[in-house]
Amino acid sequence: MVDTVGHYMGGKQIPGESGRTGDIFNPATGEVQAKLAYASAAEVDKVVQYAKEAQVAWGAMAVPKRAAVCFSMRNLVVEHKQALAELLGKEHGKTIPDALGEVQRGIDVLEFACGIPHLIKGDFNSNIGGDIDLISIREPLGVVGGITPFNFPVMIPLWMGAMAVACGNAFVNKASERDPGAPMLLAELWTKAGLPDGIWNVVHGDKEAVDALLHHPDVPAISFVGSTGVGEYVYQEGCKHNKRVQSFCGAKNHMVVMPDADMDQAVDALVGAGFGSAGERCMAISVAVPVGEGTAKALADKLTPRVQALTIGPYNDPQADINPLITRQAKERVEGLIARGVEEGATLNVDGRGATMQGYEDGYFVGSTLFSNVKTDMEIYKTEIFGPVLSIMAPSTYEDAVGMVNDHEYGNGVAIFTRDGDTARDFTNRVDIGMVGVNVPIPVPMAFHNFGGSKRSKFGDTQMHGPESIRFFTKMKTVSARWPSGIKEGAQLAFPTND
Fold first, then answer.
1. Span 14-32, mean pLDDT?
2. CA-to-CA distance for 350 and 302, rounded, in angstroms?
3. Which domain holds residue 192?
């Protein structure tokens, strides 16, 4: 008999009431580890109403006291870093070093949130005219929703939720149904940190739970990370219900390698950024773009043996380079796309299909895969594969490389490797991509800057974490104040000015 994971409300785990459940698998073995309760719309409403009542006092709390809770939470996450990494390994499959890196990125945002007394400051002007003072104030929105993905079940809830609660909101996390353990532990840690009951909540489920948040009249804002199809639906449906929505979606990230690049550095970058976390990252490099035939040959000659040498393994294998994919369906999809690439005429330099290891025959492993001679009309180029698959394109000129990057429908991240400052500057100015790396393969900004892509990689006008998170999770109130001391002007019917 396996345990059933419930939801989190009122400072504790609560059982599901809908009667619907899903399986939580061990990706390395294919075995069911636990059951997960799926929330009904009525259960989501119950959580939202509880959060709405709790938010009133939290939003009115002195801002330094909210910062103190964030600071306590930061310390608790540091203390439980290994436990969170273990949960990530067991349910997501990622290796312990990779999982620890994810947890650290969540800690970075918690540290940024500790500065909320400064970050949330408004503006003030004295005597703008007629002894009137003008004050702008940032206030919380109320109850906000965060729909978070399977691939970063610690980092993304903290990217969203830490800033949401620091700003005085209550947060309802609709966590991924694939790996709910880490989000549930985060909720427990928030309670231990002193966050009042009802301010951090977790609900699990499928489209019914998502729609319940999107349609709920007491949830004015939704933050989402996931696939483009779902993200576009969340954005459109949320906007239709008059919500503020930010939706961060799919990607096809290129890494341009110029002839003057340090080739060893470029190969190291491609191996790490292309195959880390088995490619299940929205910022993974999935297209290597060496400029010119000579550069392409030099890159392929160095890259192929490195890709061949990568090993698969479970999360707790210190020798493992590539972890299993999240589900059997994900494995089948990735292997199907590899087959499609062969059918369409790409050269398969390294084939990761059929990867297996003793004792883990039923795991969801796909080995490192490398294509060359890939064309822009091939499915493996157009689609976000979300697996350990890297394609080599070989445009003949730098201009062709820039055009290739800009012509793709996704615009999340891009990198260029070069020793030439003029080329790097021109590239960063011309590419229509949200995050650009110069000799940096995964240009995810630090917590005090903003994260976000462009084109079909993002729907909505705001970015995640950094200063824009304050703007997203607050509303502006402007106060014009005058304290008359014997002023007798009489009624003025003309529109007011500062004359």
1. 97
2. 13
3. 4-249+457-479
